[in-house]
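Work Package 3 (structural annotation) set out to generate three-dimensional models for the target panel prioritized at the project kickoff. During this period the team completed the workflow that converts sequence records into discrete structure tokens, so that structures can be stored uniformly alongside our sequence database. As a representative example, we reproduce one entry of 383 residues exactly as it appears in the project archive.
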Amino acid sequence: MQTTAQGWLVLELTDSPAMLGFTSAVGTAPTLVLSLFAGVLADRIDRRRLLVSTQLAGSVLAALLALLTTTGLVEFWHVVVIAALVGSAQALGWPTFQAVVSTIVERPAIGNAIALNSAQFNLGRMVGPTLAGAAIAAGGLAVAFWANAAALLLVAAIIASLRFESPAALVRAEASLWANLVDGITYLRHDPTLRVLVLLAAVPALFVLNYLALMPVYARDVLGIGATGLGLLTGAVGAGALVGALGVALLRPAGGSGRLLLGGLSLAAGSLAVFAVSREPALSLVALAVLGASQVGYYATTNTLIQVLVPARLRGRVLSLYVLTSIGIMPVGNVLAGLVAERFGPTAALAGGGLLTLVAVTVVIVRFPALVALHASVRPEGG
């Protein structure tokens, strides 16, 4: 709800696709700076306290944006500053969220747990935008922000009730943060398969995920379906993602494969191109549902392979590198997509991104056949 309402609010305040991309970039930019050290923190300190703190920060910021919107005082710079602060809290929490999964389930269930975690996340993406669209259409833009503030309080309370594995046994806490970070980078450099997995995640971050930033433009200007339609478009992504996540949980409960990973990314790129050129709302909804399903197939499989292949003591740091490439460079993609959309139109921005992603997948298939043949195997803890 927050993401959908924020995008619509920016469009109302600026009437600019470039500013949509800029705001999304500001929200994800802190990941470039903070995610690497957040991974070190995930391996050094109490993960429960770190997650509770980041959720509480997000709740306060959502409430602030809700208050500004309710009183009619909100300005574009308010949205930008709050987006940057929310992005900072998320950047600190993301590697820990990822690392926690493998500490609260049995090793053979890691793939299933990651997929189900993605399913519940995308269930929210399916329901939330639809509710946000209805609220916006009814003149209740601030309702989405108030709802997010309350929801994050609930999340913080739930996390506070859980007990996670202590990271003290996983990393040399007496070493400096920098030394711990270098350990993770060195490990990745000497594992070609993991290196390709982590670097490949930069491709959809640059060329695929920017469709989320341009969704309000498609709803209002391209398809002409307004705020309610925006909720339906975003909800279609969530619906497809939910189906895709459940499918991965059923088909690959104990791991993942390179073929599933590359197939998911290829299908995501193709469906993005279809959405980009579609002018029929029904076809656009179908394309977005397929995009959501294939996108989850790619990310859930990549996440599972990393968690299975990386030893516990380094998992937070390697996952933080993955967060950097999969999320941290999204600001670059969002800004580029916004500028291209402003100059050549949103169709060129999204269709071009889909084609470039297909080119990158082809290069990986040709140059790294080991990744194509990769199948995850659940290894014992340790190392």
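The chain has 18 helices and no strands.
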